[in-house]
Amino acid sequence: MSSAPELFALEAGSWRVRVAPSLGGAIVDARWCGRDVLRPMPEAEWLARNVRKSACYPLVPFSNRIAFGAFRFGDTRYTLVKNLAGINHAIHGTGFQRAWQIQQTRDANAIDMRLSHQPDDQWPFAFEVQQRISIDAGALVLSLRVTNTDTIAAPCGVGWHPFFPLDTEAGPTWLHTEWSAMLVSDANDLPCSSTLPPQFDALDDTVVDNCFTGWSRSARIDTPHHRVSIEASDTLRCAVLFRPADQSFFAFEPVSHANNALNGIEPPMHVLAPHEALEARMTISVQAPTADSHRSEA
């Protein structure tokens, strides 16, 4: 039986954040003024090392699905292992299923982690990625830097998969953001067309699992308890909104490319030459709710 992952606590101002480097470089919980901003990982799931029940995990070197684990890049066709039980695609990259190494520099409000990947059945290109999680200027800041360490050019994508709690008993939660199109999914959960994005009502009443393109890289979440603001770097051109039926959470995922981008869905993944790097950054800040929080415009 494997041991529970080691946790590292970050504390600064009103924030308390716990990180598990050996569990996919994931955030276990993130609290602001004593209240959960991200969905906290249940202790039983932490002990079972179930990273998909964590509060947030990195997406690298690709986001979401690669159809049936197959794609062509250059003159070569690649086949990847289906890395999650019950899903007939390669999904969410490799970083969330690997142990990250802690860098020597770490203080009370930041942690630096590193992951080195060699070609295998989950991803056929070598890369190195650094992730920093910090509490900086009153905000939770996540950054990634992926370097192509292979001898040939390689596709690369990045993002994060943060989960947010829904407290339906206390009141509704609203998402305010802007994007230009929603990718419509087929029966295999793969994009098959695009449409104008719908106007969502309260997330409590929404069921959705779609990628949105032309994202403004800024979003606001108004909950009964606080207002969450998300700001992303230019690399993160898309966002995935996932709110399953009858669940007390949703995910809002800033990502660099469309679902199944390696099979022709746009925007595409970045392509890195040997030694070239791709960087991304996401900032989550929180403030007390305001009088105009509900149904107000972004």
Query: How would you characterize the largest beta sheet?
Result: 8 strands, antiparallel
**The CATH topology is what?**
Beta-galactosidase, Chain A, domain 5
Number of domains: 1
Strand ordering within the main sheet? 10-11-12-13-25-21-20-16
DSSP strand count: 25
Note the quaternary state here. Answer: single chain
Low-confidence stretches: none
Average pLDDT over all residues = 95
> Helix segment count?
1
CATH architecture, by name, is Distorted Sandwich
Provide a brief overview of the structure:
The protein has 298 residues and is mainly β. Helices cover 2% and strands 47% of the residues.
Task: Note down, in words, how this protein is organized.
The chain is an all-beta fold and 298 residues long. The protein has a single domain (8-287), classed as Distorted Sandwich (Beta-galactosidase, Chain A, domain 5). It has one helix spanning 43-47; strands at residues 8-12, 15-20, 26-32, 35-36, 56-59, 65-66, 70-73, 76-79, 90-91, 101-107, 110-117, 127-136, 139-148, 154-156, 159-165, 174-177, 181-185, 191-195, 208-213, 218-222, 227-232, 238-243, 249-255, 270-272, 277-287. Strands 10-11-12-13-25-21-20-16 form an 8-stranded antiparallel beta sheet, with no helix packed on it. The chain has a 7-stranded antiparallel beta sheet with strand order 5-15-23-22-19-17-18, with no helix packed on it. A 4-stranded antiparallel beta sheet has the order 1-2-3-4, with no helix packed on it. A hairpin with a 2-residue loop joins strand 3 (26-32) and strand 4. The longest helix is centred in the N-terminal third of the chain and has 5 residues, at 43-47. The model has no long low-confidence stretch (mean pLDDT 95).
